[in-house]
Amino acid sequence: MSQPVVSTGPTTRQHAVRRGVPERLRPLLLLSPALLVVGVFFVGGVAQAVLQSLGRQPFLGQTDWSFDAYRATFADPAFRASLTLTLRVVVLSTGLATVLGVAVALLVRRHARGPLTTLLQSTLAVPHLVGALCIGLLLSPSGFASRLGTGAGLVDGPQDFPVLTNDAFGWGIIAEYTWKEAPFVAVVALASMTPHVRDLEGAARVLGAGRWRRFTSVTLPLIAPPVAAASVLVASFAAASYEVPRLLGQSFPATLPVVALQRYQDTDLLVRPQAMAVATIIAVLSLVLVAAYLTLVSRLSRRSL
Amino acid sequence: MNGRWGGRLGVGLLVAAVLLPVLPLVVWSAAGTWRYPDVVPGRLTRRGLDLVLDGEVVSATATSLLIAVTVAALACAIGLSAGRAIGLYRFRGRRLVQFLLLAPVIVPGLAVTLGIQVFFVRYGLADTVLGVVLVQLMPTVPYAATLLGAAYANLDVDYERQARTLGSGPLRTFLTVTVPLLRPALVTTALLTFLISWSEYILTLLIGGGQVTTLPLLLFAAIGSADRTAAAALGLLVVLPPVLIVLLVARRLRGRDDAWMGLARG
Predict the structure, then answer these.
(1) Which domains does chain A have, with CATH numbers?
(2) How many folded domains does chain B comprise?
(3) What is this structure's pTM?
(4) Chain B interface disruption, residue of A15, A28, A31, most B CBs within 10 A
(5) Which residues on chain B are in Cβ contact (under 8 Å) with A280?
(6) What is the value of ipTM here, to two decimals?
């Protein structure tokens, strides 16, 4: 039941006849290469992770269905420690990135918008791998911050500097995610602070609303949907990314993606279903966040209509 | 008056917070000796530069470029086709398609790729450049389709109709009318998909198996070593192209959050 958005006329029908592809099959045909890629790699990947977590191992002839991998995973105290760490990293990184990002957007809007926006955008381009290196060189016990601290007489040496990288709490990971993702939230927030928002703020000012009141009752509700959508992206990334926790965290407890790869690389193939169980848990967690994102975006577009 | 000074202080803090982590990276890349607790290095060296021009790094750069250019070209081609459907047609299942094209951008690749790695091994695609290119289509194609879909939605199809009425064939119309009209979006999409591929680490590791050595893989190994100068020099080499690309496309992207979405993933 497809029809072009643009007016259909004899010309369109003529084309369809000439090419021999019925008009209503055209979108499917056009979409097929992209759907093939997503279907094989993404849907196939998720389905395979689920199947293998349930005990089906392709090419190994193992076909017993069981929830053993999930039972073993959830019974493992190491997994529970990982889950706690992952949730802590996700909540703190997302919270910090969102609050700082909105604060930065408000600041940048009032002062030197052009150059500062460019600065924020360049931060977005930095690969997380390089970000992890930067944070490591800055926050490690003998890093730049520790040197500055010693110079200022606040720190007595590397042993005296608080452990911020490869620490049990995950400070290094949180620092990297916040440093990289707060500019992302800020860029999205800035994009949503349209002239329309400014007009409404002006109207509120005329009506006597103070600065804080204008922010909470006018600006924040207007920019909330895109900012919330950006936060969802940050959370799903923080939950499922590998390099940063691998480089800035501990190997025990490690975040879920690191645990998934550790179990995957285990020489004992019987551990592999557990790797897939962890991968499935990560995928489900992220997909829930995708659904939340879509809901937010559709609410956003409805509002702007 | 007070507010203005507060604003300047805030701007200063912001610039410092953004740039502070980058500072040790730049300094370390040129530091010969930098003993604790010195704030500046004792001696500068060009070892970092030599290392970047070393055979292994040059060949990894070539591999990275080859993969990223191929991935960008394929993603643009597939994205042009899908974008036309998304931008110009209303059809049943459109929401499902939108979900399918959004999910791979948001769900990071590790969880998905673990399950299919065994198939790459089975079909001889593991440890090959082709395998790495194929797996990197997963995060780039949906992104390209979304960006080009938005461009198609703004395309005036009457130009295509006029060309067809004047006797131009479908291919010629596409090449001489559609592509030039979509050129700005195409350039942006190509650059950003290049960037995603250039920064990719975990998919390359899982499918390339350490045999396909791209720059991020070398960088990861260098970060694990004790040689901070080498890691910093490689880090600069990896970070410069993406920053240049973003500065190049930033003006076109202002106000487009869907475009920034992909950038937050690297």
Answers:
(1) 60-304 (1.10.3720.10)
(2) 1
(3) 0.89
(4) A31
(5) 111
(6) 0.91
